[in-house]
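Budget justification aside, the reviewers requested a transparent look at the raw inputs and outputs of the sequence design task funded under Objective 1. We therefore reproduce one unedited record. The lines immediately below are the structure tokens for a 102-residue chain.
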């Protein structure tokens, strides 16, 4: 899932770069449309990464010697989400502007 997220994002970036080089508006809209499944895959990855409730808190005797799980880097995940949202909005604005420039 992570590789699909990365691969589609790279393809969308290539489509956007193609638009910047050629100024052909369908490439801008293609790049934008590729970002929607990228966002969906990112959300699915995030949902899968959410840990289950810690069973050790309910039964401390059963898991007394188990090491604690490391926490996800919350700040990095939040920053990635903010940058992804900004990317979607800027790509949408750029695609709409591409239609107006014809």
């Amino acid at each position: 899932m992570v590789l699909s997220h990365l691969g589609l994002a790279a393809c969308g970036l290539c489509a956007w770069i193609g638009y910047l080089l050629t100024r052909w508006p369908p490439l801008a809209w293609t790049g934008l449309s590729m970002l929607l499944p990228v966002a969906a895959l990112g959300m699915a990855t995030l949902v899968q990464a959410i840990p289950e409730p810690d069973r050790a808190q309910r039964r401390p005797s059963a898991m007394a010697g188990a090491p604690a799980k490391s926490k996800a880097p919350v700040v990095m995940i939040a920053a990635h989400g903010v940058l992804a949202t900004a990317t979607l909005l800027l790509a949408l604005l750029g695609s709409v502007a591409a239609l107006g420039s014809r």
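DSSP finds four helices and no strands in the chain. The chain has one domain: 2-49+74-100. Computational costs for records of this kind are itemized in the attached budget.
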